[in-house]
Amino acid sequence: MEKNYQAVADYVFEGQKNRKEITKITKDLAKDYTVEDAYKAQEVLLDLWKKEGAKLLAPKMGLTSKAKWDQMGVDSPIVGYIFEDMIETMNEIQFDRYIHPKVEPEIGIVLKKNLKGNDLTIQDVLDNIDYVFSCVEVIDSRYENFDFDLVSVIADNTSAAGAVFGNEKTDPKAFDLSKETVKLYVNDEIYAEGDGSAVLGHPAEAIVALAKHLNQYGEEVKAGQPIMTGGITAAPLIQPGDKIRVEYDHLQNLEITVR
Ligand code: OOG
Ligand code: MG
User: Any coiled-coil ranges, and where (predicted)?
Assistant: First the structure.
């Protein structure tokens, strides 16, 4: 029997739109969902947002590091989408746009050429990077206490809710992206640190994985899109008044106040 993706998408959409916690879909609505089903429901959800006028900006990779797997209890990379209106100004996060936001430092990649296929290599990606940039994703699972599983988080567009992008374009040829260290400070105290190798061994590997995912639908990774490759460290909950600072080796440092 055809599964009711619309009902699941409607349920998650309500939670997203009203910034209201919902119970994870696998508890009741989507008990028998496969990962494939979850992506179908995600597609219907994205269509609901597009009907509201939201403009897709880029796909994103999530759950690409062990730090995130350990924190969330789900150990498989996932793909979601960022809309244009999710991008916050460079120095501020508006707390009231979220339910219970967390922040995670990431490395962003913009390609200069579309990439497609199942057997791309890290080198293929490196040869086609336009620039890399620093970014902090603001994740805001709609599920109570971020309590989800693989299927539920995919259907919730991978907790996508906001992001802060640095505005400096860095050429990754001059250094090894897998060794780029990243330190996350909350209110001047170090919360966590890691480096590019945390992301599937190399941030470019996240683009390889994204290409594989998109290829199932006959799609490719597009040039010009700002793609977040996944949280490098665990993600702390934030509160109004918090000061978030992310220090990178070569990428632009970010300093963000939660309003
Ligand atoms: C899911 C989103 C994960 C990342 O970078 O790992 C993600 C979550 O942790 O809520 O975006
Ligand atoms: Mg993320």
Answer: none
Q: What is the CA radius of gyration of the chain?
A: 17
Q: Is the CB of 59 under 6 A from ligand 1?
A: no
Q: Order of strands across the sheet with 102-111?
A: 78-83, 56-62, 227-228, 102-111, 129-139, 160-165, 87-88
Three-class SS state of 122: helix
CB burial of 139-158 (b: ≥16 within 10 Å; e: otherwise) equals bbbbbeebebbbbbbbbbbb
pLDDT in tens, 196-207: 999 999 999 999
Residue 50 has pLDDT above 90, yes or no: yes
Indicate if ligand 1 lies below 6 Å from the C-beta of 63: yes
Q: What's 89's DSSP letter?
A: P
**Per-residue pLDDT averaged across 150-163, rounded?**
98
